[in-house]
Every structure is written in structure tokens, then in C-alpha cells.
Amino acid sequence: MQIAVVGSGYVGLVAGACFADLGHQVVLVDNDQEKVAALKRGEVPIHEKFLPELLERHRGRRLTFSDDLQAVVLASEAIFIAVGTPPTEQGRADLSYVESVASSIPGAMNGYKVIVEKSTVPVYTSEWIRRIIQRNAGALDSFDVASNPEFLREGTAVTDFLFPDRIVVGADNERCAAVLRAIYAPLVDGSYYERGDAVPRPDRAKVPPPLIISSTKSAELIKHASNAFLAMKISFINAVASICESVGADVHQVCQGIGSDSRIGPRFLNPGIGYGGSCFPKDLKAFREVARECGYDFRLLDDVMYINEEQRRRFLRKVHSALWTLRGKRLAVLGLAFKGGTDDVRESPAIMLVEELLQEGCRISAYDPAARERAREALSNKVDFAENPYDAANGADALLILTEWEEFATLDLERIQKALKYPIVIDGRNLYDPEVMAALGFTYHSIGRPAITPEGRSVRATAPRKEIDAV
Ligand code: UGA
To answer: Catalytic annotation on 279?
Structure first.
């Protein structure tokens, strides 16, 4: 199938490369000529496993790049819109890029085409796309608009795309659904997984994935509701973690207990410093606004967002309760990306915390395996960057773990202990066993578990409310 993917951001680039790997002929369109030129030269703009291999495999053959939207639409049967939908000041999704793409399509209509929303958009967007195209074109039966939300996570985007839990297709008639069925056929009929050159199957993946066909409106809602539900799970466990801290319980034991109920499940129950990234914060606000516009007051989402912000404040209080005053203290920070496995620092809770620590007068020496350059820019050069975790820890008053990078879970802790000025670790991602840390001589603070000293004594995890308010 001839496919156009408009927008070469995270979703567009990964979808384009994966469609090519499924055997389709794909043109990735972007109006940023420099981006297009860089992709043609073979540059890979994002840190994503398997993406360089797929781009290398298909570049110039099944995957080409262009800045000429009209020419590409003319030659395509399916046009995926994967442009950005950034938040407006009111928290709504800004759909002006989507509209601008939709209004350029009619000029290149030369037969039946399916226009597919891939970006995360509010319900009713497909109707607007349809209206915009009709306003500018006319021939009512020459196109359909479908919704095909994407559930990929940064860091595992390629395997999430090729080994999805499900494929959702919102299509309001069979002709349109048939085009999307054909596009995903190699995944749904399992033939892709039998190929010797297929991307390796992740442990948890169940193949072939089910294809869920729904109305376009339902598909649009599935995307927002999924992200809101996942964010709710994270805020829920973070709230439970706070109670664990107050009563001296262990949130991991609680997680195991509730996550073993198959109706709840163990995933997305890791407590931490709150969710971040380019999706959850934006999508929660947008979904809240969508609900408001539809006449429903979705207050649960306000609470999910409130708990998320509160989680950062609680962490900051932990730093205070471990170190007392912060002015002039030197802190080692491990992790600045919004989560492990990516160099993305958008809405990163780690960056927000570092900004607050800088405001309190701390000096920061940071290390991140991939996000150094992006973090340097985001923090306007106000922190020192170390080459490795041990250099970051050298002479620091305490070590803070802010991103769940796998490599942070396997540090040489004795070396870290020797490098630090005081052996204090404040772990925002619960990467270590408190008993092990105490045995190694650390005072160790984590989330939803009692803080512990080298003598094995539990210490109060957070400062009491009065002290907090005074901070
Ligand atoms: C998220 C969803 O997981 C994807 O399904 C969705 O397609 C994507 O948004 C999107 O809408 O494009 P992503 O933002 O890449 O993916 O990252 P996640 O792995 O979901 O993590 C989001 C944030 O939640 C991170 O800051 C992470 O550290 C945090 N998190 C995640 C927790 O604090 N605890 C958890 O148990 C899981």
C-alpha cells in the first residue's frame, strides 16, 4: 500500500519506519526542510531502540522523505496525520497543525483516500477533518476519515508498534475499515512475526494482536481514556505510597498484593516522583477540557493531576528532611529524562525538581545516560554535568535518583558510598532494597517505604506538616 505519514515527530517517524517494515511503500512528509534533509542524510533525530536499524533498512527504498505534502497525497491511498497537538494555555489540544494538513489534502484528491488521525486528538476531531476537507473539495465519496490511535511508549516505541497489545481502528464504514485492515494485515495475520528479519519479540508480547474496530469517535476516546487511566494508576499508587510513609508500611508489598488481582494488574503501579513526558500531562489536561466541553465535570482527573504535582513537592520535602537546609549544598542527581530509556526531557519531573533545588540555592552535579544535551538546554546550563554516576557523586552531600534508568539499578554502590561526602541517597524511583542500602552504610530515603539508616533504624520519611510549611 502507498502510505503518507505527515509529521516526522516521535509517532510519525516510528509509524513510518514500521509501516515500511511491514512491506508498505511509505513517504514521510514534514514541512521542516532541515528535518527532511537530515532524515535523507541518514540522521536519526530521537533515541529509540531499533529505529536506526529500521531507518537504515528502508531509507531510500520503502521509506522516503519529502516536504511536498500535495505531491505525496496525490500518490497515496492512506494519509496518516501524525503532527503535534501541543496544549494551549487553557489546556486544550491545539489542533491548528491538524487543520492545516487537512486543508491541504483536497487539492490532491485523485481517487478514494483514507485520512487517518494518528496524533492524539479530542473526540470530534475526525468530524472536523471531514468538514474541512468537504469545505475545500466536494466529492463526498472520494475520502473517509479514520482514527487509529497509537499506544507506543518512548524508549520502546518500535516494539510497542510492532507487538501491540491491540490495534484500534475507528472507521465509520466497511470501505474505510478495509484499508486499515490491509495496512495492519501482516501483524494481525501473524505473518510479520514469522519473518527471519522481524524486530525481536519482547518477552511480554502476545502475538498476533487483536484488531479492534470501533466508530471513529470511540477510537478517539479510547486514546484519551487509556492515557488518563494509566496516569490515574500512577497517581493512585503514589497516593497509597504517601499513606505507607505515614504508617510505616511498604508500598511494594501493597503493590504486590493489589497487583496480583488480575482485575487490577501489576503494571503502571510503580511509585515515584510523578509522571511526566509529552503525553500524560498534556493528554490529561486535554481530556479534562474535552469532558468540560461535553458537559461532564471530570473532577477525578483534577485529583490525578493534583496528586502528581504533590508527589514532587513531597520529594522535595524528603530532601529537606534528609539535609535540613539546602542553600550551598551540593547534590548529585542521577537522571534528568522524564523516564528511563529516552533522551526526552519534556515535562520531566526530574528537570522540575532540579529547577526547584537550584532555586533553593543547591549546586547540582548531574548525570543522565542520554538526556544530557536536552537537559543542558532545558536547565540553561545551570548544572554541572558529569561523565558518569561516580563523578556526579564525588564530594556531594547526597545522591538523588530521579529517573528509572536500568543502569542506575546496577551501580557499584560501594564506589558511590566512597565518592559521596555523606552517604545519603534519596531515591525517587525506588531502585534499591532499603536493607541492602543500610548494610552498605547509606541513609536511604525512598518512596512509600520507611527511610533507613546504616544502623538499620527506620527514620521518619517526611518532615511533619508544620516543618514543611515553614520550608
Ligand atoms: C505514554 C503511554 O504509556 C503510551 O501508551 C502512549 O502511547 C503515550 O504515552 C502517548 O500517548 O504517546 P510515554 O509518555 O512514552 O507513554 O511513557 P510511559 O512509559 O507511559 O511513562 C510516563 C510517565 O509515567 C513517566 O514519567 C514515567 O516515569 C511515569 N511512570 C510510569 C511512573 O511514575 N510509574 C509507572 O508505574 C509507570
So the answer is: yes
